[in-house]
Amino acid sequence: MIQKRHPTIKSGYIKKIYFHGNGGADYYFIFFTLTNGTDVEIAQFRRVGDENWKQVNIKPEEECLT
Fold first, then answer.
1. Contacts of 18 (CB under 8 A, 6+ apart)
2. Which pTM was predicted?
3. pLDDT in 10s for each residue of the chain, 66 residues
4. What is the number of other CB atoms lying within 10 angstroms of the CB of residue 51?
């Protein structure tokens, strides 16, 4: 599913993880880091080519592992 993962971008309690998928689409996930150090996923986005980012909800346990 992941062809290339870019470095994580951290800004305070926000982390953004960008990667390029095998199917040619780009993805990024946003996480908040809680005060106890736990990362909580807030949103997922996808785009193909020069399109705008669109919010998605990828569930690998249902879509990729079956």
1. 5, 6, 9, 26, 27, 28
2. 0.79
3. 788 999 999 999 999 999 998 889 999 999 999 999 999 999 999 999 999 999 998 776 666 655
4. 10
